[in-house]
RNA sequence: GCGGGAUUAGCUCAGUUGGUACGAGCGGCGCUUUUACACAGCGAAGGUCGCAGGUUCGACCCCUGCAUCCCGCACCA
């Protein structure tokens, strides 16, 4: 119709031809970096800030739909803040994800018939690093394809040099304050991964099991039940309820069992309130070395702990029948022995929840081991004598940190109440090495200090490799690495330069927002609050926004290890365009609720992008003439304010739907139609189009930026990239996110 | 066992402080090849808002109980 129009506008909107070019335009502008925005006069140097870290994806492979959702929501927040003229920083990075990455590489090695021990620590780590680097590059590329306006100049990695300094500094401070201790305790041992894991890394699976009821010997007065007969060779007591009439008379007595399948046992009968009279036989065989609960009972009664299972889930006691054999095999052996000796009284089917390791799937074997722990209950003098637990609890309770949706606060509090000391050491190679150094056993005194070697420090926690003052003996570093969440816990400030007191740290911390999946509430959120409260004496972020899990259209979980069954966001983008995927992920997606991603929805929003394209073609074809129609302007302003309020309150699902609905069904279907037979509408149409593009931009950045670029320059003063145009409405509230 | 969430159109979901359900996407029905756009327009259909009580002038929305599904956490030996 009009030869003035750009040629591409005459064809349907083609996201493929557009998106890469537009992203490059944004990236080249430098506006992802708030410093550049200030330099170029886009934002004021003293503007309010909006800062957020990207939850660093694990360097274990590709980005999946879960990541895509995260990038979309966060990009919307960031684009909105930037358009409001805030000093906006969205800081990218990746996570070394210690166990996850190491076990992935181990699996790859297995295909070559290799084990990590064949390579040795150094060579193996080189392999892991190579793999991590490749994953990292894939992830960064994908994030760019998603249109994420991350400040790549500030990119960080949880295991890079700067973050290593932060980790060591944090460890040392905690150690010096007595919050980190080396302790011999029952830990969760992963026999497959050959490492300890924390309570949160256990996944409980319901399985069928057999409950055996038996006596240790014919003379033993009390029957007990167990699902794990093989551990019974480690029993040192039988616990009954102190008020149980049946057993009261035995309490305090000790029985010697000369032969329990080749093992000698000494069993004391004890009374403990924790035993339930009505469960099973009302008596509990106590295995202090291989059960968390039993260990606690043993502690109360000062019982001996006898380890009978080793790190490979093999028996360490008994004769050839059980010694060195696997626990599963020995279970059968013991049961048969009980049968042969007429000691087995009952055998019944039950279901039980078996603890398995999140990453390797192995059944957890509780074992006593010497490990490093963080004490969550110790009072900290420099923090008004509060414990880490209290430091985690308070900011949420007092509303300094807001959680959206709110009901996750309860989940958070509940977790803290049940929290035990955090085991932070791992017997794996990939990760931050524990900064603890041990003095060689034999001293080689320095000249003149021959009589002072008793002053040599045997254990030193240090950022640098220590040198002994009195002798020439070397220090060897602890072999273990740290739980990956230790370094993740520092993320909001380690990325801003801490422990250095940088300008970034002053400007952007506490961060404004932390957006992530609710599955990370304990692993990550709680640990960040702990670390920030303790190390910086401030909260890590003011708001938490939890998104739901992404599921397939039939409700299957997509984010974790579904492999090729999961929808690849990049394929969807190639088919329908980035803007369409973004809209499908946002409209109707309330915080915290799972999102069923349906390709049909995406197709619908692709049509909308095209609709917007055609609206623009029409408007650009008319004269910008006449006065602004007051009624339409009022209507528009009222909608704009409403949408702005939604943005401020993080109701993106509503804001997106409202602007969508207005543009299509009000502006296109009614206003434009009416304008066709009414003169002097041009100026109004331009006004609505330009402002609609602004309001749509956080949601559909590509198509809006592309159209923006085609709008006639003379119609606007100082036309910039739409990405940094001013949002046309003032904040609806004084402070963001207040209710 | 403790805690949380869900239950609204055929399907997937919105519905912000209680005021006749504004609804969206997809699907289905009828009409329209003319219009910036058939990746479209117009029109109509479709809901006793899980069930039972209660509060209220008025409830999808608040309270109580129940049912079904989902998700955390804990766990019995």
TrEMBL record:
Q: What's an example of a GO molecular-function annotation for this chain?
A: valine-tRNA ligase activity
GO CC entries: cytosol
Under which EC number(s) is this enzyme classified?
6.1.1.9
**GO terms for biological process?**
valyl-tRNA aminoacylation
Write down the Pfam families for this protein, in alphabetical order. Answer: Anticodon_1, tRNA-synt_1
- Aminoacyl-tRNA synthetase class Ia domain location is 22-597
Look up keyword Metal-binding and say if it applies. no
Keywords, A to Z, come to: Aminoacyl-tRNA synthetase, ATP-binding, Cytoplasm, Ligase, Nucleotide-binding, Protein biosynthesis
Database matches in SUPFAM superfamilies:
Anticodon-binding domain of a subclass of class I aminoacyl-tRNA synthetases, Nucleotidylyl transferase, ValRS/IleRS/LeuRS editing domain
Q: Where in the cell is it found?
A: Cytoplasm
Assembly information from the UniProt record: Monomer.
Q: What is this protein called?
A: Valine--tRNA ligase
């Amino acid at each position: 119709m009009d030869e003035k129009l750009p040629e591409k506008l005459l064809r349907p909107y083609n996201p493929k031809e557009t998106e890469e070019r537009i992203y490059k335009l944004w990236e080249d502008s430098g506006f992802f970096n708030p410093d550049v925005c200030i330099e170029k006069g886009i934002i004021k140097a003293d503007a309010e800030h909006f800062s957020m870290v990207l939850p660093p994806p694990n360097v274990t492979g590709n980005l999946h739909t879960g990541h895509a959702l995260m990038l979309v929501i966060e990009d919307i927040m960031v684009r909105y803040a930037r358009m409001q003229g805030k000093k906006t920083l969205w800081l990218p990075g990746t996570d070394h994800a210690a166990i996850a990455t190491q076990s992935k590489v181990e699996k790859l090695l297995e295909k070559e018939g290799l084990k990590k021990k064949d390579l040795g620590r150094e060579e193996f780590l080189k392999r892991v690093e190579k793999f991590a680097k490749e994953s990292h590059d894939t992830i960064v590329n994908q994030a760019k394809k998603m249109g994420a306006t991350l400040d790549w100049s500030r990119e960080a990695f949880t295991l890079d040099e700067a973050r290593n300094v932060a980790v060591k500094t944090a460890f040392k401070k905690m150690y010096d304050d007595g919050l980190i201790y080396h302790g011999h305790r029952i830990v969760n041992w992963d026999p497959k991964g050959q490492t300890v894991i924390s309570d949160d890394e256990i996944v409980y699976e319901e399985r069928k099991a057999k409950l055996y009821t038996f006596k240790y010997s014919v003379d033993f007065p009390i029957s007990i039940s167990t699902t794990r007969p093989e551990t019974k060779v480690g029993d040192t007591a039988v616990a009954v309820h102190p008020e149980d009439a049946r057993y009261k008379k035995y309490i305090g007595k000790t029985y010697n069992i000369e032969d329990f399948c080749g093992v000698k046992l000494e069993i004391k009968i004890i009374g403990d309130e924790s035993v339930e009279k009505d469960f099973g036989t009302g008596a509990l065989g106590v295995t202090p070395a291989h059960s968390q609960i039993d260990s606690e009972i043993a502690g109360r009664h000062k019982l001996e702990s006898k380890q009978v299972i080793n790190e490979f889930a093999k028996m360490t006691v008994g004769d050839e029948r059980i010694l060195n054999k696997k626990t599963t095999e020995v279970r059968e052996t013991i049961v048969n022995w009980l049968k042969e000796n007429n000691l087995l009284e009952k055998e019944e089917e039950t279901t039980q929840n078996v603890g398995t390791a999140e990453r390797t799937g192995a059944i957890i074997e509780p074992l006593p081991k010497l490990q490093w722990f963080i004490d969550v209950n110790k009072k900290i003098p420099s923090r008004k004598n509060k414990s880490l637990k209290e430091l985690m609890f308070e900011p949420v309770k007092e509303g300094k940190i807001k959680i959206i949706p709110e009901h996750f606060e309860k989940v958070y509090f509940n977790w803290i109440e049940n929290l035990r000391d955090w085991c932070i050491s791992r017997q794996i190679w990939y990760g931050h090495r524990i900064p603890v150094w041990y003095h060689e056993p034999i001293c080689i005194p320095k000249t003149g200090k021959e009589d002072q070697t008793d002053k040599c420090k045997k254990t030193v926690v240090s950022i640098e490799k220590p040198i002994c003052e009195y002798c020439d003996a070397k220090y060897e570093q602890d072999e273990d690495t740290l739980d990956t969440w230790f370094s993740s816990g520092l993320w909001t400030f380690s990325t801003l330069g801490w422990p250095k007191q940088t300008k970034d740290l002053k400007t952007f911390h506490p961060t404004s927002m932390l957006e992530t999946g609710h599955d990370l509430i304990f692993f990550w959120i709680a640990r960040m609050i702990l670390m920030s409260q303790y190390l910086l004496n401030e909260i890590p972020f003011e708001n938490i926004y939890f998104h739901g899990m992404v599921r397939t259209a039939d409700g299957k979980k997509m984010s974790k290890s579904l492999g090729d069954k999961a929808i690849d966001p990049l394929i969807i983008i190639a088919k329908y365009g980035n803007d369409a995927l973004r809209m499908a992920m946002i409209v109707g997606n309330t915080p915290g609720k799972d999102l069923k991603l349906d390709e049909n929805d995406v197709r619908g929003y692709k049509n909308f992008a095209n609709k917007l394209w055609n609206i623009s073609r029409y408007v650009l074809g008319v004269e910008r003439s006449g006065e602004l129609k007051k009624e339409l302007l009022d209507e528009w302003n009222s909608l704009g304010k409403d949408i702005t309020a939604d943005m401020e309150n993080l109701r993106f699902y509503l804001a997106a739907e409202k602007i969508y609905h207005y543009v299509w069904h009000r502006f296109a279907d009614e206003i434009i139609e009416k304008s066709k037979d009414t003169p002097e509408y041009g100026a109004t149409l331009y006004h609505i189009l330009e402002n609609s593009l602004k309001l749509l931009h956080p949601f559909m950045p590509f198509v809006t930026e592309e159209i923006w670029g085609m709008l006639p320059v003379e119609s606007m003063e100082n036309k910039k990239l739409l990405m940094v145009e001013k949002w046309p409405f003032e904040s609806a509230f004084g402070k963001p996110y207040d209710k």
